[in-house]
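Hi everyone, sorry if this is the wrong subforum. Our group has a chain we'd like a structural model of before ordering constructs, and none of us has done structure prediction before. Sequence below.
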Amino acid sequence: MMNNATYTPNTKRIQSAQRNTMKASYIYTLATAIALLFICMSADMLAQSTITYTYDDAGRLTKVMYADSSTIEYTYDDNGNILTMKGTPAEQNEAPTATSATITTDEDMAGTAVPDVDDPNDGDTHTFTILTQPSNGTAAVTNNELEYTPDADYNGSDSFTYRATDNGGLSVDGTCDVTVTPVNDDPIAVDDNLTVFEDTPGTIDPRTNDSDIDGDGLTVQSITQPSNGSAQIILDDHIEYTPNAGYTGQDSFEYTIEDGNGGSATATITVTVEEQTGLPVAVDDNAATDEDMPVTIDVLSNDNDGSGTGLTITATTDPSNGTVQIAGQEIEYTPDPDYNGSDSFDYTIEDGNSESSTATVTVTVNPVNDEPGDFMRTMPADNSTQANPVTFGWTESVDPESDPVTYVLIFSVDGNNRQITTIQQSVTFDFATLGLSDGQYTVMWILSATDDVDTVASTDGEGQFTLDITTGIEVVETSANTISLSQNYPNPVQQSGATTIPFSLENGTHVSLVIHDALGREAARLIDGYRSSGEQSITIPANTLNPGVYIYRLTANGAVLEKGLQVVR
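Answer:
Right subforum, don't worry. Here is the predicted structure as tokens:
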């Protein structure tokens, strides 16, 4: 006899019915076997596309398997009667409960990670989607891995959010924390031009138009030798070129700079050797300075006094983005406030015979980060008394370069020091989370703003106020009821965990328990219905709330009680 057979039912003739969820295997004796057979083989089971039957050698049915892997198994006594019937349900899909990921990568290098996912169903697979992009790079899913690509030359911390979805369509959201480690960048060497006169040496600082994105100091490490003269590195990393005797025309050589951290770059210096004419000759110059910093330029160092009577700077033109003034035998250039980029001006020299010549000075103004703008505290007012929770507020700090500004609030109360970082202009904190007893406390607080490079303190310095706090169990008596609300535990609660809110009712009544965010908006409605008398509690998963400070409010018989709750990552 065939031991296995497959039966495909006509599902149109089977009425739909819902099979009770079975949490564990069950075994029934012969007394209930017949009834259970009709229960277990419900329309829901029979409506599945494929049902597999297994028989023993005696032709007795021993196992029924449905398409969802749920089964019914039979055993028989010695007379061939059904002895037991055992049903095993298919595993029910449950949503993943938490997920996290970290990526560490080098500057200018992409990094990947496969998130950890806590899932009650061990065999589930997961796919990932990006929810929010990071601030200093881009995030994508590649080959079902999270991939983070930092912005060019960025290093530091970053993060983005993503969603993990199991093969049953249920999901949980998580945050990927990113660390981008700094990597030294090579400096950039730019070709230079130098003009000298026949039989006369000249000097140049080739670094004036070179740069290093990491801000490293640059030194001239080596030079090659020109074809029609000689070159040497002299004091302060300048290079001195001396043409061969009687030579005029073009010459060139290369130089290499180093940044002290293993980075180097090479560029070419082209030299023009001009014939002596007996007249003064002013030669173009290059200079560099940082934003908001003046620079003094020795423009005469490469000029030629053909008559040997001495040179004098007699005039300058005005640059477009700064000012200049003659300071003896030098010129001082001052860039306009916050300007960076290229600027230029002309200058004129004159010798002792009143012969003159004019040349151009090109100045490179390097950008320098500007600190965030002034701001001040607005609330709570100094020396005021504040009830818990307390909202801190301040004016906006505007960055001159439109860089994003982050505010750092630090306060101290009863030996507790806390730091809160936010991009908003206010934050609410529940001091009950510090475990303070009922009473009044002095709170000292300071505020600063940072653009991740420079940090400034609020212009009004340290603030102080009195905190009036009430903690523990809050009890309200009404004409019909006595109601109490206790502090949730744990508090603060991690977003990946859960917290319990206890309360009690003297008499059964309609109860509303709602969580509100710091702006008073409803974040979650936990209870809205009749509750019986006695001690009660409700436990909620914190992953339904974003990190922050919340108020939960219990309403019953016209009375309102509330407590603070804090969710942290």
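For your construct planning: Residues 1-48 have pLDDT under 50 and may be disordered. Residues 490 and 499 are 6 Å apart (CA to CA).
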